Amino acid sequence: DAGVIQSPRHEVTEMGQEVTLRCKPISGHNSLFWYRQTMMRGLELLIYFNNNVPIDDSGMPEDRFSAKMPNASFSTLKIQPSEPRDSAVYFCASTDRAPGGYTFGSGTRLTVV
Amino acid sequence: AQSVTQLDSQVPVFEEAPVELRCNYSSSVSVYLFWYVQYPNQGLQLLLKYLSGSTLVESINGFEAEFNKSQTSFHLRKPSVHISDTAEYFCAVTLRNSGNTPLVFGKGTRLSVIA
Q: For residue B4, is pLDDT > 90?
């Protein structure tokens, strides 16, 4: 298995532009998580899905952020419009029923200028 | 809600010296505990976990952690570190027996091993 695949690895965009981050979880994993990592705040949970259904999106910073999981093999995190304070590394992780056994992707480093 | 405190943001240590990375958690219910490691420009990888049974758990590369319920701690130790152990280490917690509830992470401890 290729692991959790995130794209792009790096994204540089101008303030106000739409940004879409993509994630392909491990086949057979039924839970998917989006985290954001910054120096100041560490790892923050944004949203998670169980069986493609969003369970808790209370970590999404504001309405500019949205996430979807149209099927078991794909999820997107969209920011529209983007702002410089959104600059961070965004991680996707997936797991099966094993507690805490997350597999993380390599992350997307987003820079909004 | 659960929370995790990693008391040291950075720990420098000489090669072959012992190291302890501290982790304390807060929760009103029983939890599972984890340590993850993040190498530069990579995602997090599971290092070890405590689910039940023996309170001392070990990883394949010589790290160990001990669950201490009375002190609500899960400190990570290694008797002799290598240069390759240089990384950021994250302690995490999730609710016991609650399905796939999310992990709550500490802010991380950057371990720097000096030759």
A: yes
pLDDT of A105 > 80? The answer is: yes
The backbone torsions φ and ψ at residue A9, rounded to the nearest 5 degrees and listed phi first, read: -75, -35
User: 3-state SS of B82-102?
Assistant: CHHHCEEEEEEEEECCCCCCC
What gap in Å lies between CA B34 and CA B57, rounded to an integer? 10
Q: Among residues B4, B21, B1, B3, which one has the least CA distance to residue B86?
A: B21
Query: Residues 75 to 104 of B: which have CB under 8 A from any A CB?
Result: 90, 92, 94, 96, 99-100, 102-104
Chain B residue whose CA is closest to A57: B102
Query: What's the rounded Cα separation, in Å, for the pair B50 and B25?
Result: 13
Alpha-carbon distance of A97 to A44, in angstroms, equals 22
Note the residue count of chain B.
115
pLDDT of residue B98 exceeding 70, the answer is no
> Taking chain A, what is the end-to-end CA distance rounded to the nearest angstrom?
36
Inter-residue long-range contacts of B58-61, CB under 8 Å, 24+ positions, other chains counted: B59/B35, B61/B85
Which tens digits make up the pLDDT trace of A4-19? Answer: 999 999 999 999 999 9
**Percent of chain B predicted with pLDDT > 70:** 97
Backbone angles phi, psi at B50, to 5 degrees: -115, 120
